[in-house]
């Protein structure tokens, strides 16, 4: 069992200065479900985005881009400020509010059982796909029909508007 802290969310990126230059999907695809969010080099390690009003966290970890709902499924904590930890070969965010662990690959919530082994509670945080193409980053919002616990907070309805404005660094309108 490994539980190693490998980073923290204190290094928030500034709003990207280079806007998206693509109006189509990545590669040969003409799939409008892929949304161009901007030039990859204009994003720091973490950026909180509003894509079609859904608040998501775009993060780069070990040279790979990930995207998941930015507000913790448990009670609305800001995952942009979560520490990154490796837990049993999973890369997780540890929410700064109540220390819940969330796998950044599949959004599973993890807990430690009585034998001190990490177990999955199943998908709790909605995870979205990210691709880089021609220097641009594209996000495909997860369209899974079954609800995921993080859906409750995904549109920021529980947050006062000024808090929402502070947290979201870039808006991608419809
Ligand atoms: S709000 Fe994230 S663990 Fe409670």
UniProtKB/TrEMBL annotation:
Pfam families: Rieske_4 (PF22543)
GO molecular function: 2 iron, 2 sulfur cluster binding; metal ion binding
PROSITE patterns, per database record: RIESKE
All residue ranges annotated as the Rieske domain in the record: 34-139
Biased composition regions of type Polar residues, renumbered to the chain: 1-24
Chain segments carrying region Disordered: 1-32
SUPFAM superfamilies for this protein: ISP domain
Leader peptide range in chain numbering: none
Cofactor(s), names only, from the UniProt record: [2Fe-2S] cluster
Keywords: 2Fe-2S, Iron, Iron-sulfur, Metal-binding
Name of the featured protein: Rieske domain-containing protein
Originating species: Gracilariopsis chorda
């Amino acid at each position: 069992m490994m539980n190693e802290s490998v980073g923290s969310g204190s290094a928030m990126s500034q709003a990207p200065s280079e806007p998206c230059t693509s109006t189509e999907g990545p590669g040969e695809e003409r799939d409008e479900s892929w949304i161009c969010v901007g030039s990859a080099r204009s994003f720091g390690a973490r950026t909180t985005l509003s894509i079609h009003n859904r608040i998501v966290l775009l993060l780069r970890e070990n040279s790979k881009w990930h995207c998941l709902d930015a507000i913790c499924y448990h009670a609305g904590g800001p995952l942009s400020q979560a520490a990154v930890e490796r837990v049993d070969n999973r890369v997780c965010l540890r929410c700064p509010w109540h220390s819940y662990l969330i796998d950044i690959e599949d959004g599973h919530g993890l807990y430690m059982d009585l034998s001190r082994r990490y177990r999955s509670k199943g998908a709790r945080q909605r995870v979205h796909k990210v691709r880089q193409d021609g220097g641009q980053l594209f996000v495909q919002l997860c369209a899974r029909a079954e609800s995921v616990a993080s859906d409750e907070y995904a549109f920021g309805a529980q947050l006062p508007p000024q808090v929402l404005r502070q947290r979201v660094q870039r808006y991608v309108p419809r």
